[in-house]
Each structure stands twice: as C-alpha cells, then as structure tokens.
Amino acid sequence: MAKLAPLDLLAIVLVIVGGLNWGLYAFGYNLVSILLGGVPVLERIVYVVVALAAIYLAILTPKLSK
Questions:
Q1: DSSP-derived secondary structure for 2-65
Q2: Judging by beta carbons within 10 Å of its beta carbon (0-12, 13-18, 19+), is residue 56 exposed, middle or buried?
Q3: How far apart are CA 4 and CA 52, in angstroms?
Q4: What is the residue extent of each domain of the chain?
C-alpha cells in the first residue's frame, strides 16, 4: 500500500468535507456558510480550494492503483 503524503491527506479531508457540505445542503444547511459567517469572499475561496483538491485527487487516484 502506498504511503500518502501530507498534501494527499489534506486533499482527501477537503473532498470529504466538501461532500458532507453537499449532503447537508440537501437538508437546507450550508456548513461553509455557517462556519465562515456568510462572508462570500471566504466561502468562494473555500469552494475553489475544495474543487482543486478534487481535481488533484482525480489525477492522483490512478497513480495510487499502480
């Protein structure tokens, strides 16, 4: 089994948090908005970072299967 680098673990955590936020959003809660007090600029930054983490994992995942 491949050992994950700290960046890999951070990306995994961010994608999990993003997924949980989407799940909560389905029930009327936006975890990012709640945690950041509804500051649109900060929310957008968080969403971009989570999206970049998802892209990173999409690229990393095939490499881990080797």
A1: PPPPHHHHHHHHHHHHHHHHHHHHTTT--HHHHHHTT-HHHHHHHHHHHHHHHHHHHHHHHHHT
A2: middle
A3: 18
A4: 6-64
pLDDT tier for residue 39 given thresholds of 50, 70 and 90: very high
Only one residue has tokens 């971009």, namely 48
**Which tokens in the block code for residue 24?**
């909560």
Cα–Cα nearest to 17, from 55, 40, 62, 47: 47
Per-residue pLDDT, 63: 77
